[in-house]
Every structure is written in structure tokens, then in C-alpha cells.
Specification:
This protein has 3 domains: 3-176, Rossmann fold, CATH 3.40.50.970; 189-340, TPP-binding domain (Rossmann fold), CATH 3.40.50.1220; 367-548, Thiamin diphosphate (ThDP)-binding fold, Pyr/PP domains (Rossmann fold). Helix content is 37%, strand content 16%. The protein starts with a strand and ends in a 32-residue tail after the last strand. This is Tartronate-semialdehyde synthase.
Length: 580
């Protein structure tokens, strides 16, 4: 056995687990680990400006690659600053490991400098939070951390390393250590057979693609199943991009916020819904009595406790999404491929008739026009990143995405500021792909210092800011309370409407070595996007296109899914199109 430091052993495990990039800030209580990373010469550390930003960068990297994102920080406030990122990753089922330094073990009960019970702080927002007490535990704790972060429903793990543990030694042979196996439950054959029967019995079936399908890299199997059975597909917010939005079977998105008009209508007309890797989150379902209606639900999820958490499905199946879809596809192939039906004709009809207008020419710019320009300018390979607010809701309603892992959104936790650091992680994962962050003016200001990280390391991406000079989602929500309190934000200077000048986002970008341009007329959006792509590539820095939009523009949303019209009886289908 080789005698080595505990941190050298930790780095050997990280390398074997495929870690090439970490984000973090060196500090006194974590320097032994950083020394081992430096000695290895095989892991690159990106120094962030705030630990929360580092967690979101690791999160973005994990979403883009499917690998475990890693963030490292020192003790005390470094760890507490990571809590929001840990929560965000766990809430959205993203594999991530945060590593914190800690005061020496014998000082933990003596209120030592920057000594905090970070394990206790992180426990509610992680899958596992652990204080390592002995050097000999280090390689095995790291192995288990990578297993837990990826096993079942993925999520975040925190490892807390006291200084004396980091400095300790152990006998460890990396060649005798290997990755721990992951659990991938297979579905019950009887349950799969019953699920297929329910779909075939239905008159208006829907397949629902959740984020778990993307996490399981099962979007291809999902598409093949939809095409063979000729069943329309709706996606959740976390599943956006998992099914091409120009596919004939795409049935939009249902929800009370991020939704399409035809998506809500088709969902409410459906009679059987097969949901895979979806949580039935409240922003998706709204009023459950309306959401459930008379339709039957089949729920497939890798996490047993997800089934029945929001409501009891008619059929629940615990399974890895990929294994379930393979089993469904194999069984479906025992019958001929199904052809066009009145239901798929209905989908095609509503997709072209029950839409929202986007071609506004007015000034101030209406937000839908911004997304019209985005859809027309950027190609299918562009990766989009967005966070929380009215701009996220408009993005979900208007933006078109065609590929899995090409639409990154913090769905459940919704932390403001997520986009900029997430863009960094996504771009490092895909350096040759255009990355575009859709941001709000207020969210931009939360972690805008991370632009300096991208400038330092020459990480180019585009930021398209929807600036309404409001905490827009809160202002719109307050309409129900007939008040408008503490949600007003000033426009960036120079202003033209008499408001007190606010922060100048373009100058902020320039002050950090990046670039920016402000747009106030709809015809100037596309030239600004062209300029941004050209300059980002040439200068290798982030570039901001700030679009000043109508201040009091609202997004369409409510308390429940709303049917625009009562559904029509399905028309008789020409028998010439139906296989005998």
C-alpha cells in the first residue's frame, strides 16, 4: 500500500470519478486539498467571486454534461454561502458535490474562527451531508459521495473536511479502488403491460416528458415510443428540449405559468397521461381538481417516494426512465406502428390556431417580440440558460428548443442570479457551442460579479436581458392584493421616462472587461444579437444585449390550467389513413 495524505487520496478518487473541472475559492481551512489538486496537475480550478456563484457554475456544468459538478470552499461563510446552490441542485435532481474545509476537530465545540456546523445547515437541502472524522475515511467517503449524488434521483452532497483530517495520512492504493455501483431499478413487466394497455385503450392519450427523462439520457427512446404509438407529447419545464418543438407530435407545455395555450387545451382534453420523470410541481399543476379532472394517470419515476406525493396515480411504476422506456418500446413493437388519428389531427390544428401573438412592432418593446427574435436568430444547437421571474415565464411560453440539455432552467428553487454562473459551467462543458443566458435586470444584479470570472478565463457567452425595471413577477402577483409595494426598479441610465436613473448594466459589463449594448426599438434587436455573437467570439468575453421592454407587461398565468374553449368531439378520420 502507498502511504499518502488524505487529500491526495481524495484527489485520486476525484480523478477516477472523471473530475476535470472544479469551481472554488481557496481559503485557510481547505488549503491542504488545494495543494493536492495543484500537485496532481490534472484538475483545473476556476476561482469564482462568490461561493453561491460557484455552486451554480458547478450546477450548470452538471446539467450540460450529466457528470457530477464540484464546488470547493473554505470553512464558515464559504459553506453557508453554498446552501442556496445545494438546495437548487437537489430540488432539480442535479448531481453535485460541495467540499468545505473545517476547523480542527478538537476545536469544533469551542467556537473556533469560522467554525460552523455546516453539516447541520446543509442536511435539509442535500441527499447526504457528512463530517469526515478520520483520515482513513476520506477515500471511501468521496466514493460514497459520488455514488449518492448520482444514484436514484440525483442530487447534492456536502463533504466537510476538518484541517487535521486533511493533514492526516493513510495507506491507500488507487489501483485497488473503483467506482461504487449505481442503482437502476427495472420496471415490473406486468406494470409495463398494464401501462401500454391503458395507452391503447385511451381516445386522447398524452405522453409527458419530465426532467428525469433527460437525466437518464432517454430522450431517444421516448421519441421512438411516441412515434411508434403515434401519441402526442407534452413536456414539463424541466423536460423542455427533451422533445423537438417542431415535431408533429409535440403538444406544447401545460402549466399555470410556463405553458402554451394549445398545450393547456390539449392537456385538458386528454383522457390518459403517462408521465415519466416528472414531479407534478405546483407551478405545473395548479388547482389539482382541474388538473386531474376525469383523466387517468400513469406515473413512472426512479424515486419511489415521488409516486403519490402530489396525488395518487392510477398506476405507479418505480423504474429508471431509460429502462422503463426500453421495456415499453419493446412491448409496443409487438404491435404495428399506429398511424394518424383524429387526436393527432386535433394536435396539429391547435398548434397552428391556439397560439400567442409575437409580432409586435410597438415601442416600448413588448416581451414576446424579444423571444420572436431569439427564436428566429439562434439555431437549433444553441444552449439556453434562464432562471426565475417573468422573463423565465415568457421564455417557457414563447421560446423554442429542440434538443435535450439545451435548455437549462432552475425549476424548483428558482434562485435569482443563477444564470451568469450557470452559463460559465455550461460553456466550459461545451466550449464550441453558443451559450445564451436569458436574464432579468434584477436577477442579473444578484451575481453579476461572476462576469469577471468569465472575463478572466476567456469564457464567452451571450446575455439577453429583459429589462422592465420592475420586480415584474412580484408586481404582477400583487395585482391580486390591489397594491404595488417595493417592487419598482429604476431603468438603467440614461432614462427617457422620468424615472430616477438606476444601475447602468452596459457600464457594469464594460467595467469588468466584458461588452454590452442597450436596445430600445424592436427593429434593433436582431442587429444587436448579430453584434453580440460576433464580438463574443472575437473578444472571448461575455456580451450583454439589454432590451428595454414595456414596464407593466404581464405574463399569462393563473391559479389553474385554463381551457380556452370546450373541447370538440373528435372528427371521424378518413379510413384510408388508418391501417387495417
Amino acid at each position: 500500500m502507498t502511504r499518502m495524505s488524505a487529500t491526495d487520496a481524495a484527489v485520486q478518487v476525484m480523478l477516477d470519478e472523471g473530475v476535470e473541472i472544479v469551481f472554488g475559492i481557496p481559503g485557510a481551512a481547505i488549503l491542504p486539498l488545494y495543494q493536492s489538486i495543484m500537485k496532481s496537475g490534472k484538475i483545473r480550478n476556476y476561482i469564482v467571486r462568490h461561493e453561491e456563484g460557484g455552486t451554480h457554475a458547478a450546477d450548470g456544468y452538471a446539467r450540460a454534461t450529466g457528470k457530477v459538478g464540484v464546488m470547493i470552499g473554505t470553512s464558515g461563510p464559504a459553506g453557508t454561502n453554498m446552501i442556496t446552490g445545494l438546495y437548487t441542485a437537489t430540488a432539480d435532481s442535479i448531481p453535485m458535490i460541495c467540499i468545505t474545509g473545517q476547523a480542527q476537530s478538537h476545536l469544533l465545540h469551542k467556537e473556533a474562527f469560522q467554525a460552523v456546523d455546516i453539516v447541520g445547515c446543509a442536511t435539509p437541502v442535500t441527499k447526504w451531508s457528512v463530517l469526515v472524522k478520520e483520515p482513513a475515511q476520506v477515500p471511501w467517503v468521496f466514493r460514497e459521495a459520488f455514488r449518492i449524488a448520482q444514484d436514484g434521483r440525483p442530487g447534492a452532497v456536502l463533504i466537510d473536511l476538518p484541517l487535521d483530517v486533511q493533514r492526516g495520512e493513510l495507506d491507500f492504493d488507487p489501483t485497488l479502488s473503483s467506482r461504487l455501483p449505481l442503482t437502476r431499478p427495472a420496471p415490473s413487466a406486468a406494470a409495463i403491460e398494464r401501462a401500454l394497455e391503458m395507452l391503447l385503450e385511451a381516445e386522447r392519450p398524452l405522453l409527458m416528458l419530465g426532467g428525469g427523462v433527460i437525466s437518464a439520457n432517454a430522450t431517444e427512446e421516448f421519441r421512438q415510443l411516441a412515434e411508434h404509438l403515434n401519441i402526442p407529447v407534452t413536456v414539463t419545464l424541466m423536460g423542455k428540449g427533451g422533445f423537438p418543438e417542431d415535431h408533429p407530435l409535440f403538444a406544447g407545455m401545460a402549466g399555470i405559468q410556463t405553458q402554451t395555450r394549445y398545450g393547456n387545451q390539449l392537456f385538458l382534453e386528454s383522457d390518459v397521461v403517462l408521465a415519466i420523470g416528472a414531479r407534478f410541481a405546483d407551478r405545473h399543476t395548479g388547482d389539482l381538481t382541474i388538473y386531474r379532472g376525469q383523466r387517468r394517470f400513469i406515473h413512472i419515476d426512479i424515486e419511489p417516494t415521488q409516486i403519490g406525493r402530489v396525488f395518487a396515480p392510477d398506476l405507479g411504476i418505480v423504474s429508471d426512465a431509460k429502462l422503463a422506456l426500453k421495456a415499453l418500446l419493446e412491448l409496443a413493437h409487438t404491435i404495428p406502428a399506429r398511424q394518424e388519428s383524429p387526436w393527432t389531427q386535433r394536435v396539429a390544428h391547435l398548434r397552428t390556431t391556439l397560439t400567442r401573438r409575437m409580432d409586435f412592432d410597438e415601442t416600448p418593446i413588448k416581451p414576446p417580440r424579444v423571444f420572436k427574435e431569439i427564436n428566429e436568430f439562434f439555431d437549433r444547437d444553441t444552449i439556453f440558460v434562464t432562471a426565475i421571474g417573468l422573463y423565465q415565464i415568457w421564455s417557457g411560453q414563447f421560446q423554442h428548443v429542440y434538443k435535450p440539455r439545451h435548455y437549462m432552467v432552475c425549476g424548483q428553487a428558482g434562485p435569482l442570479g443563477w444564470e451568469i454562473p450557470a452559463c460559465i459551467g455550461v460553456k466550459l462543458a461545451h466550449p464550441d457551442t453558443l451559450v445564451v443566458g436569458i436574464v432579468g435586470d434584477y436577477s442579473f444584479q444578484f451575481l453579476m460579479e461572476e462576469v469577471a470570472v468569465a472575463v478572466q478565463y476567456r469564457i464567452p457567452f451571450i446575455l439577453v436581458m429583459i429589462n422592465n425595471a420592475y420586480m415584474g413577477l412580484i408586481r404582477q402577483s400583487e395585482i391580486a392584493y390591489t397594491m404595488n409595494y417595493c417592487v419598482d426598479l429604476a431603468y438603467s441610465a440614461p432614462n427617457t421616462d422620468g424615472n430616477t436613473p438606476g444601475i447602468d448594466h452596459v457600464k457594469v459589463m464594460e467595467a469588468m472587461g466584458a461588452l454590452g449594448r442597450r436596445v430600445e426599438a424592436p427593429q434593433d434587436i436582431r442587429p444587436a444579437l448579430e453584434w453580440a455573437v460576433r464580438e463574443a467570439e472575437a473578444q472571448r468575453v461575455p456580451v450583454l444585449v439589454e432590451v428595454i421592454v414595456e414596464r407593466e407587461a404581464n405574463a399569462a398565468m393563473g391559479a389553474a390550467l385554463n381551457a380556452i374553449t370546450e373541447f370538440e368531439p373528435l372528427p371521424a378520420l378518413d379510413t384510408a389513413t388508418v391501417p387495417s
